[in-house]
Every structure is written in structure tokens, then in C-alpha cells.
Amino acid sequence: METNQTTLDPPETEPTEKPDPPKRGEPRKFRANSLGSFYSQLTKQGLARFVGQLPLIDKFEAELKDRSDREIRKYSLGLRHRAKSGEPLYKLLPEAFALVRIAGARTMNMRHYEVQLIGGMIMFDGAIAEMETGEGKTLTATLPTYLYALPGKGVHVATVNDYLAARDAELMMPVYKMLGMTVGVIESQMSSDDRRKAYSCDITYGTSKEFGFDFLRDRLLIRQTREQGLGVLGPLLAGKKEKNEEPVQREHFFALVDEADSVLIDDARTPLVISAIPGEAEKVAVACHQWAANAEREFEEDNHYEYDHDKKSVELTVTGRLLVRQVPKPKLLDTVGLVDLYDYIERAIKVKRDFHSGQHYVIRDGEIVIVDESTGRIAEGRKWSYGIHQAIEAKEGVEVTVATGQAARITVQDLFLRYRHLGGMTGTASSSKGEFKKIYKLNVIKCPTNRIPQRKLWSDRVFGNAEAKWSAIVEEIREINASGRPILVGTRTIEKSEELSKRLTEAGIEHEVLNAHQVALEAEIVSRAGQPGKVTVATNMAGRGTDIKLGEGVHDLGGLHVICTELHDSARIDRQLVGRCGRQGDPGSTRQFMALDDDCLLIGLGPKRYKKLVAFGENQSAELPAYAKLFRQAQRRIENKHFGDRKVLLYHEKQRKKMHREMGQDPYLDSPD
Ligand SMILES: Nc1ncnc2c1ncn2[C@@H]1O[C@H](COP(=O)(O)OP(=O)(O)OP(=O)(O)O)[C@@H](O)[C@H]1O
């Protein structure tokens, strides 16, 4: 087996003498040098004030730590009073952080590490704390969240999905409760009343999507009230207004964004949209989608249409357009112009080619539900725009939820820029530093790890084709599984998880598959993924936010081994998957597998080069380590392209808002289209 420069030892050459890493939960061995250099680096960045706060926090902690729970709570109420009276929050920071630290230690036996205090200060200061995966961001979040909650204006903790929002709120509840703070969670299937209650809490956990949709719904409600000539406060004062006709949110004071790269960057390519109520025209639209979904089968590539692999776009040829005219149509379509019919057909063809059940979406209770490609999770409530969603519905024969006009829309960027204070955290931010700064005006500051990381990167393995790659993966799983070490395998799509699962079953390897179909079982399955002899296959969903604890004896066997079966479009997502092992100073190892027919080469290098590579790889039986670089290059290209897409969206949004303002309209509610 060959190694390349970026990697370390494969199993055979693993050093026999292992360092003696500290066990999870053991006190950190203070790394004076690395922390010292981190502190001097902070000082150089003009952030010496963070370091200066540490002794103050220690001092207050020492003073307060022997007080009773009641006294701590009382002290916290005192802080709240001082904040409400206008004392600047940065002055309260040492006391607030000391209280949170005491509450963490007392209620959960987790006393915030020094690096976590620094992380908390970074976020308080309006920046993104980049903390390695597994460094305890959930606990760190309690520090700035508590501090900003003191003035009573509400704090929103945003994350990527309902599951993580509810889980984190529940996990951290004891800390907040002890300090007299109320905590609410917003979930997608909640009534307005429950939402209002959750938002009236001091701290509200939820997804960025829910925060955004609630903002839009409130905005629509306020306008409706105004249009009825009541004024916003009038009915409230007059006591006429029903509770559920009041906005659910309060002001946008502080938002803390967990998994900041995923929320602020990956999810920022599509705006959040609330559709208007359907009318007559929409019936025709439904008929068009259904007609196109059927007629599409008669159209052949290169004869009736051309497909651009780079842009993933379909264009009818002259012959194709002729065919559109000839295909029989229902009466309802008589009023529809030919140009529109071309669009419907092109969209239906595109959907057939590019959107696949099990990969991009699943059908649940007669509905098309998007699967977030980067996480493998169900993207609850999201819809593709430009009629794509409806075209998929028509293709799958489920009810077509007509593409109505937009009643309200907001981009993720706009949503978070509305908050007076914004902070974030993630394990993977550096590579998007420029984008965070440019779009959100957020600096990214890297925190050192609490303990020396023990994760080993084994050499990449590159194969000529998928078949060879899958066989090697199964072989590696078999070898490592025999030693009793647990293994987590990450795949790019649900389909591929299932394909690997089939192969493992054939090879007689016991395993568990975790994918978007089983969200409810997820936590339970993941919690077992670190147990001896366990093999867990998952899409990238396991790559985010899930903590995998090592079972009995696994530490001594070398910890969890993570196998990445294919490069993702974004290196950050790969790093998240890798980050499931080697957490909190645990040992662990990881290996990346690649094949010349992987999707990332097609998307990153284009169909011409891809075809050549596939042809070359077809008959290769040997491994091709020299090609690893090419995959990373393709990945960088995809990342750049996505960054470009987001910049374009932002530019158009900016123009749109400017136009609305000039016309005296509401940029979130009035849609020109
Ligand atoms: N101060 C602490 N003392 C003891 N244990 C801690 C402390 N901070 C975090 N942990 C433990 O570390 C583990 C990882 O925490 P967590 O899942 O919050 O990490 P994370 O940084 O969010 O990881 P990821 O980036 O993968 O989401 C958890 O088991 C948590 O209980």
C-alpha cells in the first residue's frame, strides 16, 4: 500500500508504541507552549482582552463555587437586573462566564475548559469560533448565550435541523435552569401559540429555516393588520386581537449559529420562500407539469434536446420543439403558449436526469421531501424553486403542489444580518474565512484543542472504478472489524449507503445502515457506533453534530475508524465526517477512498475529462495514488463554483431590495415575479 504526503500510516505500518493519550473526561494536560502561542496569536490580532478575562473568570468562580444552588440563582438574577439596567455586557462577562462554568460543573459534571471560555468570548465578540470537531461546542455555546440572554431581549441559537436543536436545548437545559433562564425549542410542526411561547423564553433553540419562516409569517401578519387599517398596536391596545393574530417573534437581538458553515454558507444558496394562495392559473400549471412528466419520455438526448453537463441545463433542439407541438395535450393547455410548453418539457427532462429518488429526495406520505445532499438528512419544509419541485411531484405521480407566486421571501444572509449581534461556531470554518468576512462581516478565529488530537490520517486509496473501490472498502472493513474496532462508513448518498449495505451483507459482515429514512432511530444507532465490533454505514448525516462515544476497550484497540467512501462537493463536509473519530483526545483513524468514476470528478472537471478518466479507469486493477491530487483539485473547483452561485444570489437580492426600496415596497413581501 502506498502513502502520499498528506497522510500517515496504514494499518500494517502503524507504530507499535502508542502514545498514552488522556482518557475522556480526565483533566487536560496543560499544553503551556501551544496555548501560550495561541494566546500570543490572539494578542497579535488585538484580542488580548480575551486572555485578560481568564484570571477574572477564575477569581469569580473561586468566590462563588461554594455557594448553594439558590444563591447562584440569586446571583444570576442580580446579573440580569444589572444588564437590564444598562450595564454593558462585556463588563458582566467574567461573572457570567464564572456562573455558567459553575452551573456546568454542578449540573452536568462538565466544567468549561479554558479553551471553551476563549471560544465563548470569541462568539460573544461577534466572530466565528472554529473549534475542532468533538471539542464540546454545545457546552461552549452556553457561555455567550447566557450572557446575551441577560438583558431579556431573547437569544436565538440556530442550528441545521430540528433534531439537533431539540437535542442541544435538552442537553444544556440544566445549566440554564440553574441560572434561572427559560429555554424554548421551535420545531417545524408547531402551532403559532407554541411558537410564541418558545420565542418568549430567554433562549430559543431552532433551525435557521424556522427562524426565517417565522420572521416572514410575522411580517405578512403585520402587513395584513396594517392593510385592515388597524395599525400594529391599535388592536393590541384595544384588546381586539386574537392571540394567534399576533407576531410570534420578538426582536432580533443575538443569534448564535451552530454549524455556522452549514447554516450560513451551504444553506445560503436558496432563499426561504412562502408561497401565495393558489388561483385559476395554478390549475393550468398543474396540468402542464403532469403533461410534461408524461411527454418527456419521447424526447431523446442529442436528437430532441442537448444537455449541458457544466450548467446542468437542457435545451430543446429544433426537432425537439417540433415534437412538443405534436405531442397530444389536454384541453386545459390550449391557453398555454408554446414557449412555456418548451420550458415545461425542458424542466421535466432535467428533473428526470438530475433529480433522483433516494438521493436528492424521498417520497414521504405522498410528498416529495428534499434530502440535504451535504448532510443526508431530510430538509424539512424546503422546496426547490423555478418549478423543479412541482416537476418532480408530477414525475413521481404525487399531488402537484402548484408553484404559486411568492408571498414572502428572505435569504439566509438577510435573516442573520438582521440580528444586532451575531456569533457562530463550527469545526470547519477556515476555508470559508473570506466568505464569512465579506458577507456576514464575521471574523473566523481558530481555537486550540483541549487535548492533543490523536486522530491518524491513513493514506488515500484511489481506484480505477467504483467496483474496485467498493471491494477494497469491504475488505478494509472486514480486516478492521476482525480486530474488534468499531467502524463508521460515510457515503455520499442514501443509494450508495444501501449499495454498500448489500455488499456487506453478501460478505457476511454485520452492520447497521443510517440514512434519512430513519431519522427517528438516528440517535440510538449513532450512540452505538463506537461500541466494539460495530460497523455503521451512514450518509454524511452522521458527519454533523453527532457525538460518538467509545465503548469499553475500544480506546486501547485504537478508537473508531472512519471510512470516507467518496469525496463530497465540499471539503468541509468531509472534515465533519472525519471529525467523528479522535474526539476529546480519543484515539481514532480515518481513510479516504476514491475512484475515477466518482461524481466529484464529473462535476469538478466536466464531462470531457471525466469520460477520459472513466475510460482509463475501467480496466485498472492497481491502485492509483498519484491521482489523489486531482480529486482535491476537482473538489476545490466545485467549492469555487458554489461560492460563485452564492455571490450571484446575493447580488440579485441586493438589486431586488434596492428596487423595492425605491418603489416604497417591502423587499421581503413584495415580489416582482
Ligand atoms: N468541559 C467538558 N468537560 C467534560 N466533557 C466535555 C466538556 N466539553 C465537552 N465535553 C464532551 O465532549 C463531547 C463532544 O462534545 P460535542 O458533541 O458538543 O462536540 P462538538 O464540538 O459539538 O462536536 P461536532 O463538531 O462534532 O459537532 C461530548 O461527549 C461532551 O459531553
Automatic annotation (TrEMBL):
InterPro entries: Helicase_ATP-bd, Helicase_C-like, P-loop_NTPase, SecA, SecA_CS, SecA_DEAD, SecA_motor_DEAD, SecA_preprotein_X-link_dom. It is a peripheral membrane protein. Residues 1-30 are annotated as: Disordered. It holds the Pfam family SecA_PP_bind. Residues 15-29 have a biased composition (Basic and acidic residues). Keywords: ATP-binding, Cell membrane, Cytoplasm, Membrane, Nucleotide-binding, Protein transport, Translocase, Translocation, Transport. GO terms for cellular component: cell envelope Sec protein transport complex; cytosol; plasma membrane. Residues 472-639 form the Helicase C-terminal domain. Its EC number is 7.4.2.8. It is an enzyme of class 7 (translocase). GO terms for biological process: intracellular protein transmembrane transport; protein import; protein targeting; protein transport by the Sec complex. ATP binds at residues 116, 134-138, 547. It is found in: Cell membrane; Cytoplasm. Its main location: membrane. PANTHER family: CHLOROPLAST PROTEIN-TRANSPORTING ATPASE (PTHR30612:SF0), SECA INNER MEMBRANE COMPONENT OF SEC PROTEIN SECRETION SYSTEM (PTHR30612). This is Protein translocase subunit SecA.
